[in-house]
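Structure, all two chains, one model.
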Amino acid sequence: MEKLLLRNVDKENSHTIEAYLRSGGYSALRKVLKEMTPEDVIEEVKRSGLRGRGGAGFPTGMKWEFAAADLKEPKYMVCNADEGEPCTFKDRIIIEKDPHSMIEGMIIGAYATGCRYGYIYIRGEYPIGRKILERAIAESYDKGFLGENILGTDFSFDLYVHSGAGAYICGEETALINSLEGRRGEPRIKPPFPVNAGYLWNPTVVNNVETLANVPLIIERGGEWYASIGSPDCPGPKLFPVSGKVKRPGVYELPMGTPLSEIIYEHAGGIINDRKLKLVFPGGASSSCLTADEIDVPMDFPSLAKAGTMLGSGAIMVLDETDCVVRAALRLIEFFRHESCGKCTPCREGTDWLVRIMRRIENGQAGEEDLDVILSISETMENSFCGLGMAAHNPVASTVKKFRDEYLEHIRLGRCPFRSS
Amino acid sequence: METFKIIIDGKECEAYPGETVLEVAERHGIVIPVFCHHKELRPEGACRVCLVEVEGAPRLATACTLKAMPDMVIRTDTERVKRARKGVIELILNNHTLECPICDKSGECELQMTGFRHGPKKSRYKEPRREKDIVIKGPLIEIDNDRCILCRRCVRMCGENMGNRVLGILRRGYQAYISPFNGDFLESGCEHCGSCIDVCPVGSLLDRAFKYKDRPWRMTKTWTTCTLCGTGCRMEVDTYHERIKRVVGRIGVNDGHNRGYLCVRGKWGWDIVYTDKRLKKPLLREGEDLKEVSIDEAIEILKEKVLNRKVNLFIESSLTNEELTRLAAIFGTENVASDALPYQEALTGVAEITGRFDTDKLSVIYDAEIIFVIGDFIEEIKADSTTLFSNNLLI
């Protein structure tokens, strides 16, 4: 397939504006500012069927429409570059190798929604990405793509980079806005949604890096062309970061709806040493796992939801037969315990309890009844405040359901069967 | 205001626009257990105990954050709701210390009551209890973080209602705990209004003057008016065998103009009742000695001494009306000066411009859109008014 999102990353100095302009960059912005009204842009994006790539899969055109309809001023455009999910590294490649595509997408989005100021909230662990972005923004200002009266029109837009301080929860849009305001990074009550009351209680559009990088493509080639790529429900190219026990881990750009088995066996080269696949987390650390029998599922939002898991950020984590499921699930739930903000009870207490039970299972000090307790905690955690708590129990609960035998093996042996001692 | 109907547990309830489901339910006598919500605070949705089932919604919703909409159908008593509620309360109780026998809050603790009514009957928690072991002691307030359920009422009370922002949360997740920002109450600018203690649903925020002194259930509760200044705040004095043990404002229950908010004097000043420096009877100096006399006798002597001399009476502006009436009866209303005089002159000046000037009840402050403060040392003389102001300005 033709590379769309990653069209520039292999070129020399792809992060500079010269390289981006040479490959036809900012022509979409020119087209938007010269020929299109904001309504046209939103209409085009809606026609493309683009859905948010951050995890929730909310239709981007609709989000922009809501923000544009709000009368409060000023409006803010925020790019969510707080890519904290374990094994997710798709946004990083855009930030570091092709920052201008995302900046261009942001300016177009700001024009469509009427935003005056923009922020890129980048995670604290990407210091190089931050430097590259700052440089890219400075270059854009020099060329007149940012600032006042962009390209001689009435439209003005200022863009800033804000670095996070290392909290996973700040990838949640309301927590991100709280953090941007200088408060504690904790999710806010929704509704009101950020499109109506976000940054400083003004309308705020929060979009993922990859979503924004899609926007120039849609403008350049038209929404209908975009809608023809991949699965009809949620079309477009998607970046799939594949990691774990595969021969060629990395970021793969494939159309939405590519079967998971094809990604693992064809694009990522199959499992290391041709061992047997045990389980896959198809949408980052917070998704439910899929077993080897279930991997023929197309990778898009509705199909994975039907399969009982979720696409999330699209990060594919592969475990083979030599990996201990309990240990993997323990490691993931430890991450969520560490990253829970502590606002709501189910997430704060539930993750801690799960870690403690999982540690006992891994060390062989658990009983069979503990598995039922895990499932009941996971049910309670469904009632958490935000998406973190609602999804944090997934790796544990899904493995208990699908690999119960292995858990029972741990309990029966009184130790982890995958460790020699 | 226009109202609409919503149905809670099959009962038709009248709701006002903007009200939450919890408020509607409370008004109609339907109890939904909750920790993080408090009548005087903005909704937070943190404790997740007030879960209810909304017809047509896939997930359970928290009643404290859910705005009532016309024709909403809410269930609070289904098996699903009960199970979810039980699960959350179990999570809260897992690491809560069982210090009830020595806890000051025991007997009026919301966690005890809610746990009893809605909690699980048996715990499945096998792990050793997680101890934070962080106790922060101020001069009058103490935070015991092991008892804390992180409902954040105190944080919001301090920051949003009192405008002090002394209390906050440090660290995150299971390690989160409540603390004044740099660990010290005085350095963080705490005014010791005690509102955080009042709203704490458990025994985490403690009144140090009351700690280990008595049990809430056996004290006699008397509603009275604070006499320490002229503001006249309503408060509850708890006594045991006619000895004062503590004073509480009961924010959310109190119907006085102060709505339960007290100042440091009202909350902790009651100990002047028992100080040995307090004059209980007038004393007459005879040579070196002081002789006890009755009050009438004392006034007679005073009159003798001051009669036919040029006397001026200077009274403090914060005296109560009762005290002023008594003084007027004895000394008349002539030759009286007060530090309130400049204010009177200012008010007369205002009256000259506006035509009239009436003093109003203190509680009208709550409804005001703009408040003019004349005289900038109001904080010193009227701690309670400051509380009212900040409360009003920051909501």
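Chain B is about 25% helix and 20% strand.
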